[in-house]
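TASK: fixed-backbone design
INPUT:
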C-alpha cells in the first residue's frame, strides 16, 4: 500500500477486522516519510503488520527503478519506535535453515533474539561492538539466526504467495522493464469480481508467463504475470464485493490476514497483511481444498456451488467435527436456494 493512499487503503481492508489506530497511523506516516527521504525512493509502501507477543513488527518496502524487467523490493521493519531498519538478506542456506527449525509459535517482538536452541556448554558469542580487534581474523563461530531472520524469511514467503494487483495495471516498457500502465483505468464492475482478472506482482514462475515475458513484442502482450486462478490449492482465494462501497476485496485462505482490494472503474488498488505470519496448512486443509470443486456435484441440489463459496466452506471445514457437519448442512441449504 503506497504511503499516499494509506488512509484510504486501511478503510478498504478494514473488513478483515484489523486496522491501525491514530497513534500508529501518525507514527507510521512519519517513519515512512523519513525512510523515503533518506533512501531517496520515488514511492514507499506499507506492507503490513506482523503481530508479536510483546511487540509487533511494522513492515514496509521500497521499489527501485528496475534495470531489467522487475523492480527490486527492499524490505524494512520497525518496532514500536517506528524507526525502520533494512531486513536481513538471507541466502538460500539460511532460509532453508529457518524452515528446518519449524518454529510455529508467534513472534516474540525482540528482533535480535536468537531462534536457535542453545547448545549445552556453548559459550555465548559476544556482540560485534565488544569484539577484540586482535582476534578479528581468527576463526569465529557462524552467526546464529535471529528473529529478524525469521521475519525476513516469512515476509518473503507471504509476499510471493500474495502481492495481488489487477491485470493490466502494469506493462512492459521499451527497455523491457515493468512499469505502471498509463492505459489502465480500472476493471469494470463485473470483471473486478473475476479471479482471472488479478495477477501476482512478482517475477513469474509459470511457463506460460515466462514465455510471454521472453517475447520480443512483450510490451503488447499482457499475460506476463502469474494469474491468481492458477494458485494451488484450488479455491485458496475468496473474492467479495461490497456494492454499497463500490469495493472488491480478495482474501487469502492460505495466509489468513492478507487482503487485497480494488475499486472498480478507478486506478485504486492495494493490499495489506495483518496477522501472526502463520500459514493455513496441514493435510486436512489441503485435502479439503483439493476436494472443494467437487462439492457442488456431490450435493443433491443444483446448480453446483460457485468457487467463492467452495473456498469459504473449505475454510470452515477444517475447524472441527461439528464445523464439518454444519458446513454440509449449509452447503445443501445454499445450493437448494
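OUTPUT:
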Amino acid at each position: 500500500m503506497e504511503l499516499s493512499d494509506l488512509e484510504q487503503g486501511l478503510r478498504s481492508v478494514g473488513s478483515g477486522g484489523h486496522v491501525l489506530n491514530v497513534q500508529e497511523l501518525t507514527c507510521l506516516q512519519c517513519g515512512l516519510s523519513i525512510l523515503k527521504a533518506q533512501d531517496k525512493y520515488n514511492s514507499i509502501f506499507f506492507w503490513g503488520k506482523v503481530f508479536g507477543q510483546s511487540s509487533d513488527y511494522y513492515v514496509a518496502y521500497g521499489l527501485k527503478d528496475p534495470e531489467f524487467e522487475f523492480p527490486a523490493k527492499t524490505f524494512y521493519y520497525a518496532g514500536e519506535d517506528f524507526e525502520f531498519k533494512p531486513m536481513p538478506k538471507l541466502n538460500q542456506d539460511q532460509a532453508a535453515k529457518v524452515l528446518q527449525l519449524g518454529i510455529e509459535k508467534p513472534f516474540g517482538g525482540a528482533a535480535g533474539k536468537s531462534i536457535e536452541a542453545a547448545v549445552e556448554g556453548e559459550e555465548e558469542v559476544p556482540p560485534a561492538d565488544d569484539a577484540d580487534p586482535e582476534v578479528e581474523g581468527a576463526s569465529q563461530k557462524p552467526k546464529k539466526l535471529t528473529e529478524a531472520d525469521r521475519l525476513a524469511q516469512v515476509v518473503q514467503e507471504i509476499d510471493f504467495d500474495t502481492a495481488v494487483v489487477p491485470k493490466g495495471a502494469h506493462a512492459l516498457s521499451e527497455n523491457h522493464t515493468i512499469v505502471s500502465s498509463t492505459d489502465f483505468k480500472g476493471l469494470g464492475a463485473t470483471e473486478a469480481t473475476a479471479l482471472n482478472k488479478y495477477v501476482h506482482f512478482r517475477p513469474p514462475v509459470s511457463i506460460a508467463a515466462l514465455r510471454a515475458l521472453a517475447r520480443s513484442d512483450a510490451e503488447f502482450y499482457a499475460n506476463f504475470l502469474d494469474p491468481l486462478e492458477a494458485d494451488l490449492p484450488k479455491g485458496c482465494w475468496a473474492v467479495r464485493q461490497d456494492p454499497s462501497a463500490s469495493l472488491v476485496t480478495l482474501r487469502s485462505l492460505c495466509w489468513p490476514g492478507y487482503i487485497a482490494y480494488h475499486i472498480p472503474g478507478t486506478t485504486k488498488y492495494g493490499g495489506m497483511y495483518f496477522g501472526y505470519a502463520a500459514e493455513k496448512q496441514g493435510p486436512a486443509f489441503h485435502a479439503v481444498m483439493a476436494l472443494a470443486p467437487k462439492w457442488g456435484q456431490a450435493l443433491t441440489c443444483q446448480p453446483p456451488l460457485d468457487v467463492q463459496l467452495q473456498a469459504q466452506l473449505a475454510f470452515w471445514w477444517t475447524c472441527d467435527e461439528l464445523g464439518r457437519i454444519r458446513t454440509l448442512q449449509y452447503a445443501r441449504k445454499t445450493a437448494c436456494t
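COMMENT: The longest helix spans residues 22-38.
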